[in-house]
Amino acid sequence: MKYLEIYEDIKKQILRRVLAPNAMVPSEKALTIKYHVSRITAKRALNELVHDGLIYRIQGRGSFVQEHGNLTNQQLLLVLPFSGKQELGNYVAGIQEVLKDTTWKIFSITNAEFFKLSIEQLKATYAGAIYYPQNLNKEMPYLFNLYLSKFPLVLLDKTPPNSIIPSVISDNVYGGFLATKHLLENNYKKIAFFGETNFMQDFSGSTADRFAGYIKAIRKYQVNHFDPINLYLKLKNTPYDQIGSFIKSNKIDAILSENDVTAFRILTLLQKSNISIPQEVALMGFDNLPLTQITSPQLSSISQDFNELGANAVNLLLRQINDPNLLFNKQVVINVKLIKRKSTEKK
Q1: Terminal C-alpha separation, the chain
Q2: pTM for the complete prediction?
Q3: Which domains, and CATH codes, for the chain?
Q4: If you count DSSP H runs as helices and E runs as strands, how many of each does the chain have, helices first?
Q5: pLDDT for residue 182
């Protein structure tokens, strides 16, 4: 859409410092001439820039670039639990697309490395951080201290209840629902949810949301011939070397795994137990990581848009950097998609 082109062009000029803080932004009339658009389209682009904290208006004078909280520090931080890309999606591509041709730089460190830095060190080195939590119960006191210090922060993948810190997540509840619906529509009767994450204590995080979506589908489609919660707990507490026999004895014909990595582990175990996929047991993952396409059979999965997640996270971060006094707890939820492959194809 044309207004988005105008929005992105001006945003890039602001982030590249071509348009300095408090500099005047081209007027609606100037934008209509430059981009060959209507006054309404130009106004909408400017409204979006105001909404995202990039510019401000003075009645009777025009629009101006918002004062940046930190004009010298151009380094942003991405904090992920693992240094490799196999365990998590590639958020970096979406972040780099937003920052392309700007003076901003993104650096990635692990959660362990992050917690070795004092708040003073973080503020001296970085303008803000995108943070992927591992254990929110333990991490929240430190994150709240960062918030109190006005250090710009965005959470990725998880949103704690009543959080005042902005976050970007995938629609994990709908993903769990969509995966279970797909299995039911393919006439699988006894679908077990499998996860290694201990989410039952506080029922928070992406695995808890995916499990909630699974339960929602079980209720929606009136599956009442087994207890899904009891089945999940029993399967979770079964030693790995006994999972194959547990699945056989309980006549489980489909498994929805919390993510692709655990789905791959289950696939390996089932094949060692001479359980064929999907002839005897269907298997579904979550995240649509590259490994789903190199397994045999290839794994069906729920696809997260990691580019969109990364792009939205860095936009929320820049919005805080542009306006250090901004108080907002915006949560952005990104759509997911069902990816059908051989592991759930009914023979």
Answers
A1: 44
A2: 0.81
A3: 2-65 (1.10.10.10), 75-170+307-336 (3.40.50.2300), 172-304+338-344 (3.40.50.2300)
A4: 13, 13
A5: 97
